[in-house]
Amino acid sequence: MVRVGMHVSISGKVDQAPDRAKELGCDTFQMFTRNPRGWKFNKLNSEEVTQFRQKASSYALTPIVTHMPYLPNLSSPRKAIYNKSVKSLAAEISRCAELGIPYVVTHLGSHLGEGADIGLTNITSAINSAISQNGSSNVMVLLENTAGTKNSMGSSFEDVKRILDGIEQSKRIGLCFDTAHAFAAGYDLRTPESVDETLLKFDKILGIERLKVIHLNDSKGELGSGRDRHEHIGLGYIGEVGFRSFLKHQLVRDRPLILETPIDERRDELGNMRKVRELAH
């Protein structure tokens, strides 16, 4: 059975996130553990942590995924930002361990025009450093493929492979595949044939066993547009045929699906979850 969920808010208290996910009918969900638009954060409240763990277990929401805040740039050539970004990732791994969350998804950042080789050196060093600071943790860092916007790291499977190859503790690293980003970066997902070709290529270059979470989003941009703009499932350039093929493909049909789709007059979060379940049936 398809496991589908969405990004939910931690507004109020962190342990309210499982409640919101359950109310929405999620099987899995993604969250931030702190304010995603700032560097500063408070320590987790021990009572809220206990409540979070109990609720997550009793609601059978699995897996729970966190996402790194927006400000960190692990590929940054600017030393001050780079150092703060490493500290931020290390803290996020620690917070996930405290909450019992197995996965933290991170964007791969931007080399800011300094070149992909510098970006590669920085991001591999950043991840190695953050992981080593959490030596006993079993939290896995998931690298998310990008849409191919200017100076961004990791839009091609080959580029992601270069990052993976630089990680010292390879068992602590996995992958998050974003359908909209892949499509914007030039990987076709519109037909059964193109879905098969893209996923077989992913498997050959990166290894499908590393894929732990899928961000399921349609794309407002055309194939290879480099535009990171998400659309409702089936209403963008990937379309219903593409998603039906993707959701039923043997390489990914058992992976947890997180929706990061828009909310507007056409459809809300529940509408997109219903659409996914319909197409996967």
State the main characteristics:
single chain; 281 residues; TIM Barrel; eight-stranded parallel barrel; two-stranded antiparallel ribbon; globular
Task: Provide structural commentary.
This protein has nine helices and ten strands. It has 281 residues and is of the alpha/beta class. The protein has a single domain, classed as Divalent-metal-dependent TIM barrel enzymes (TIM Barrel, Alpha-Beta Barrel). The protein has an eight-stranded parallel beta barrel. Strands 8-9 form a two-stranded antiparallel ribbon. Strand 2, helix 2 and strand 3 form a beta-alpha-beta unit.
Describe the main β-sheet briefly.
8 strands, parallel, barrel
- In whole angstroms, how far apart are the ends? 8 Å
Return Rg in Å: 18 Å
Average per-residue pLDDT, rounded, comes to 96
CATH class: Alpha Beta
> How many structural domains does the protein architecture include?
1
CATH architecture identity: Alpha-Beta Barrel
* Content of β-strand: 5-15%
Helix content: 25-40%
Q: Which regions contain 5 or more consecutive residues with pLDDT less than 50?
A: none
* Spatial strand sequence of the major β-sheet: 1-2-3-4-5-6-7-10
Order of helices and strands: EHEHEHEHEHEHHEEEHEH
Number of helices: 9
* Structural class by helix and strand composition: alpha/beta
**Can you tell me the CATH topology?**
TIM Barrel
**DSSP, total strands:** 10
CATH superfamily: Divalent-metal-dependent TIM barrel enzymes
Shape, per Cα inertia axes: globular
